[in-house]
Amino acid sequence: MRTAGEAASRAGVTVSALDSQADIDSTIALLARVWSVGGGEPLMTSPLARAFAHSGNYVAGAFDGTSMIGASVGFLGQDAGGVHLHSHITGVDPGVQVKGIGYALKLHQRAWALEKGMTRIGWTFDPLVSRNAYFNITKLGADITGFHANFYGVMRDGINREDESDRCVVSWDLVSQRSIDAANGVGLDPKVAADEGHRLLGLAPDGSPVLQPRVAETLLACIPRDIVAVRAAELDQATAWRRALRDAFDWAFQEAYRVTGMTKSGCYVLTQSA
């Protein structure tokens, strides 16, 4: 299996657990840059991150030399499946987000959890951010296990621009075959093309959402490739997409569909359970 160290080497970084106050402060500053947080409410405070690190939770940074360019913070969680690591926030400097640094951080997090005896990591993500959905489902081999509308309330950072915070819940089984394949670099891209199957959700010529509930063994819910750009250019259209995907997921999950894949072009693959 590819190691976390190999992933970091390919990304040109070193990844390590953090404990010093200086590194904790750098983590908070980095996360503020990633989410364009100004003088408002911070995503996380330095004392809280320090407390997490001191009490044995996961606080790690990715470094290019001595410069921190990525960071991740998690803490122990417990649900019906038992104790797991909850990955609360992970961010990479905007200037280097396509260099595999996020993947290196996640493999480091995976190795850390396994070393502590945990075989599962959970987190939430905005289902409208297609690159994150592809990364979580296809690149890492994680599963969507739930959906919550407006989970955190209205988000007032520079990226979300007061959008509501719908979130998918992710469960990453670290010893599943999908996870092992992903860690070995095996592609998990769905075998369905973006133009095949029945469209539950798609894009109209003007970029607006078209929702068409229907029953088929496999459905596709396609979203914009870059919702952040849509939000910046036309907030009303971004809001329409938020509501349309929310309705699509609500309908699909009630009809016993589950997400089984994500295409690079931005289509969720939904398969109906037997």
Number of helices: 8
Total beta-strand segments: 12
* Low-confidence parts: none
Reported for the largest beta sheet, the result is: 7 strands, mixed
Kindly report the spatial arrangement of strands forming the biggest sheet.
Answer: 1-2-3-4-5-7-6
Gross morphology is globular
Q: Which structural class do you get from the secondary structure elements?
A: alpha+beta
Order of helices and strands: HEHHEEEHEHEEHEEEHHEE
Question: What is the straight-line distance between the termini?
Answer: 33 Å
Average pLDDT reading: 90
| Assembly of the depicted chains | single chain
State the helicity in percent bands.
25-40%
Gyration radius from CA atoms, angstroms: 19 Å
> Strand percentage, roughly?
25-35%
Task: Set out the fold topology.
Blueprint: H1 4-11, E1 14-17, H2 21-34, H3 46-54, E2 58-64, E3 67-79, E4 82-92, H4 101-115, E5 120-125, H5 130-139, E6 143-148, E7 167-173, H6 177-183, E8 198-203, E9 209-211, E10 218-222, H7 227-233, H8 235-254, E11 257-262, E12 267-272
Helix pairs in contact: 1-4, 7-8
Describe what you observe in this structure.
- A 7-stranded mixed beta sheet has the order 1-2-3-4-5-7-6, sandwiched between helices.
- The mean pLDDT is 90.
- By secondary structure, it is α+β, with helices and mostly antiparallel strands.
- 33% of the residues lie in helices and 29% in strands.
- The protein has helices spanning 4-11, 21-34, 46-54, 101-115, 130-139, 177-183, 227-233, 235-254, and strands spanning 14-17, 58-64, 67-79, 82-92, 120-125, 143-148, 167-173, 198-203, 209-211, 218-222, 257-262, 267-272.
- Helix 1 runs antiparallel to helix 4 and helix 7 (227-233) packs across helix 8 (235-254).
